[in-house]
Every structure is written in structure tokens, then in C-alpha cells.
Specification:
Length: 177
């Protein structure tokens, strides 16, 4: 069965290909797992995923969040609709997810995690932001972390919040616009 989600992956940083085997498949499985866990989206819904370097994401983080530092993931939802409705015409764009190679590699190493597992976490986290989940309030953060952990388990990825060092730095660094 094919996914109703169109995942448009752009690899701006070739280091991603050297760090993660079957890169496109890893990202697609993570995005599809979010869609399956959240009730799905209309066929033809599109997400743009850019796998970039730290300099690229630092520029975006500075421009859109006034934070002059690299971060692990940024999500830019197109609008407030969490589940686009089916319609005739071109794909409905849900939004953009940008993930930085250097930051993800450093975080994975610091936490003793596989890079592909941490990449899955970043894709899941970004997808949930596009679908309206957030972690600004404590209760929302617990809900989002629980959802992430449950989705990642379906992919065979261990609980990313089992150690607080990465969880704490993760939510300080990422954001949704």
C-alpha cells in the first residue's frame, strides 16, 4: 500500500548520504509512521524535507527565530490545518522540515544513539509540528514526547527521552514557525 504523503526530500549536505544508509527510505518510513499514528492525511499531501548542514540551518534560525546558532530541526507549517482535505488539483503542501547534519550527528554521539535513529526522531518531531503538535507548555510537551516515543517504537527506535541530556537540549534547540 502506498502512502498518501508525498515526501519531497532535498539533500543540501552530502554528508547525510555518508552518515545514513538508505537515507530516503529512513526518512520516508519515519514520516509515514507519523501519518499512520495520527490518523492520516488526504492523498496528495506533500511535505518538503531538507537535509542540510549547520551553516544553512543557523542562517534560517537567525533569520526566522533571531537565534544565531545551529539547531537540530526547524519546522515551518504552511497553515493551521492539521489534516488537509482531499481536493482536485495539485498536492496540498503541509509544510517544510529542515534538519541539520552536524547538530544531529553531535547529539546522537553525545547520547550514544545511532545517527539514523536520531534522524528518525527529528523527522517524527518535525512532522508532528507540521500536524499541530507543540511543546511550549509542559502538558503539551509530555503529550508530544509520548507520541514521539510511541511512533519511534513502531520503527524499532529506542525511547529518545530515556536520557535527559538530549531531551533537554532538544527542546531548547528546535522550533516551529
Amino acid at each position: 500500500m502506498s502512502s498518501p504523503l508525498i515526501l519531497d526530500i532535498e539533500i543540501q549536505c552530502e554528508s547525510w548520504r555518508q552518515s545514513v544508509v538508505a537515507l530516503d527510505g529512513v526518512c520516508a518510513r519515519a514520516a509515514d509512521a507519523v501519518i499512520a499514528a495520527t490518523g492520516g492525511v488526504a492523498p496528495g499531501t506533500e511535505v518538503s524535507l531538507m537535509l542540510c548542514d549547520d551553516d544553512f540551518i543557523q542562517d534560517l534560525n537567525h533569520r526566522y527565530r533571531d537565534k544565531d546558532a545551529a539547531t537540530n530541526v526547524l519546522a515551518f507549517p504552511l497553515d493551521e490545518v492539521s489534516t488537509p482535505v482531499a481536493r482536485d488539483g495539485p498536492p496540498v503542501l503541509l509544510g517544510d522540515i529542515i534538519i541539520a547534519h552536524g547538530t544531529v550527528v553531535r547529539e546522537a554521539s553525545a547520547a550514544g544513539r545511532a545517527i539514523d535513529h536520531h534522524l528518525c526522531h527529528m523527522v517524527v518531531h518535525g512532522m508532528l509540528h507540521l500536524l499541530g503538535f507543540d511543546h511550549d507548555a509542559d502538558t503539551a510537551a509530555v503529550e508530544m514526547e509520548t507520541m514521539e516515543t510511541r511512533i519511534l517504537a513502531t520503527l524499532g527506535v529506542p525511547d529518545p527521552y530515556a536520557r535527559n541530556d538530549l531531551a533537554e537540549s532538544h527542546h531548547e534547540n528546535d522550533d516551529v514557525q
